Amino acid sequence: MSEASATRSGTRPRFGERAQFVSLPGGEVSALLVRPDDAWALLAFAHGAGAGIEHVFMSDMAQRLAERGVATLRYRFPYMEERARSGRRRPPDRPPVLVEAVGAAVAKATRLAEGLPVFAGGKSMGGRMSSTAAAESGLRGVRGLVFFGFPLHPPGKPGTERADHLADVEPPMLFLQGTRDALADLELLTPVCETLGPRATLHVVEGADHSFHVLERSGRTDPEVAIELAERAARWMSEHA
After folding, report:
1. Distance (Å, whole) CA 215 – CA 221
2. CA atoms of 212 and 214, how far apart (whole Å)
3. Spacing of C-alpha 229 from chain mean position
4. 135-190, pLDDT tens digit by residue?
5. Spatial distance between the Cα atoms of 235 and 101, rounded to a whole number of angstroms
6. Which SS3 state, helix, strand or coil, does residue 71 take?
7. For residue 181, what are the CA distances in angstroms to 142, 151, 167, 214?
8. Beta strands in 15-150 (DSSP E)
9. Short-list 64, 78, 70, 91, CA closest to 21
């Protein structure tokens, strides 16, 4: 049975999630570890600005990566931890707090990896904060960064200032971007990646928006796009493991 048909029939295997905690100077944040028995790499996987580690994209991608031998540690930023505990919405933390959380999560992931190659990245803001942490501190030991929708600019405000720090990122980077992404005009992102040279790989997903949703008229389905993302990410990580 193909993965696409297995997805439609609901027979895909389910990998267990183990609760973890990441220690920060101001306390702890929750995390979820998905580690298949045949894991060959581990991704420290940060969430986006508006949705946490339980969001369907995060949980589904963790499962799809596990099917391909990639373990994931999904972790909360402090503001999302407070939101989960209090039920009250909070805006994202300031960048220094987010960057500090990335560094702590990568350190935790490295301990959990037990010798496996470690990668970092995330969805939207989580990916950008991972690259910011790499630019500022290096994220020692990380083999590469994976961006599921790098937020190059706010919606309707095209620009490249958010990419300025990428010149200081040493590990290789994979950009997974949709052609309908309102937060990343490909006419701007493509030359950014070209400027970064061999450190940057850009994979374009035809018809996908920032959430990697595709319109029905595209002839594709969201699960098919998710398969493409997981396969490309896993293949790229295997090339840099």
Report:
1. 8
2. 6
3. 11
4. 998 899 999 999 999 999 999 999 999 999 999 999 999 999 999 999 999 999 99
5. 27
6. strand
7. 27, 9, 23, 11
8. 18-24, 27-34, 41-46, 70-75, 118-123, 142-148
9. 78
Q: Which residues pair with 8 in a beta bridge?
A: none
- Model-wide pTM > 0.70: yes
Task: Catalogue all structural domains in the chain, each as residue range(s) with its CATH number.
Answer: 12-240 (3.40.50.1820)
87 CB-side CA count, 13 A: 0
**What is the number of H-type helices and E-type strands within the chain?**
7, 8
Sign of the CA dihedral with 165 first, then 110, 56, and 223 last: positive
The Cα 169–Cα 87 span in angstroms is: 36
Please list, in sequence order, all residues whose beta carbon lies within 8 angstroms of the beta carbon of residue 136, skipping any fewer than 6 positions away.
Answer: 99, 165, 168
Between vectors from CA 133 to CA 132 and to CA 139, what angle results, nearest 5°? 135
Pick the closest to residue 189 from 198, 206, 202 (CA basis): 202
